[in-house]
Amino acid sequence: MKFKIIxxxxxxxxxCYSVLTVVSIRDFIEFIQPIHEQKGNLDxxxxxxxxxxxxxxxxxMVEDLRKGGILPxxxxxxxxxxxxxxxxxxxxxxxxQEKITILDGMQRIQAIKDALFRKEITHNLxxxxxxxxxxxxLLYRMLVLNSGQIPWGLDKQLEVxxxxxxxxxxATIPYLEKLISEKIYKQSEIVELFLAFTSxxxxxxxxQQLAEYHAALDIMILIRERSAHTIGKFEExxxxxxxxxxxxxxxxxxxxxxxxxARVGFMVAxxxxxxxxxxxxxxxxxxxxxxxxxxxxLKLYKIKDKIACQSIEQNYNFLALDILKENxxxxxxxxxxxxFLDGFKVIFSESEIxxxxxxxxxxx
Length: 364
Known about the structure:
Blueprint: E1 4-11, E2 16-24, H1 25-37, H2 52-66, E3 74-79, H3 87-93, E4 100-104, H4 106-118, E5 124-132, H5 135-146, H6 154-161, H7 163-172, H8 176-181, H9 187-199, H10 206-214, H11 219-247, H12 260-275, H13 286-308, H14 312-319, H15 321-329, H16 336-349, H17 357-360
Parallel strand pairs: 3-5
Antiparallel strand pairs: 1-2, 2-5, 3-4
Helix pairs in contact: 1-4, 2-4, 9-12, 11-12, 11-13, 12-13, 12-16
């Protein structure tokens, strides 16, 4: 390996190691070529941008390189089981290129390749390696490094930040990937449901939520600290909601659980029942929270079992869709989420639900 180690530092906040190296540009391109061609070996990395402004910037970098210009360090990431990184194991770890990802530098690497095609470049390049045991740390590092560029839209950023939760849901719900591919769910919508559940709000200010998580150096650690006891509960409620909806899929235009407006209202209703209203001290009473969660699961399982053994016509009547549609027509669209929240609360205040009509009559 032609890399020369300049500095090794431990990031105790992210449980990562940063290794700053220097290498000749030609040796680096030979090393990084297969990784760059695979879009950085990271699902959420941007490809080489082909916009007019991106090409102008890259052309300027090419000219700078030809004249002896020095580019900022390229940042690579490696997920490994090694707890301590030092000069003794560094070169062995970077030998497995399948585990190396490009966190920052996709555009600069393309500019370097273009410059080498036109002229021999002999000076060196700084390359920083980040070693971690947790992919979320690499995703966060990439998010920070790419912030302020042309980057992803807000929904894409949220998907990346909450990727561990999405992956856990996909592992728990085998058919979720199919629902996403069929556009029944968007990943950004699932993230919004999680934010609605944890915030107990039907209106989610995505920018505010994302900024709040950005405020800490490690978004994933912040999620675990703040919401560890909520993640598992969200996953269970989400799973039950999708299972109920699967039993109802033959009913067209059902509006219950097959659109984001109703889903958000349902999630917030569940969260309020489990954790109490915003401002209450119930969130600190863990035994009561577990008791509430147990009660909710029982009620939702009872509803699911009832729907599973009924005919399409019986389920249509059980959902009381005619009443739902009539009531929604009299409610301004911007208040539909709150209306569903008010309606779904009835599920948990009544001992048994024989018809969703009792829910829809509480919508206002």
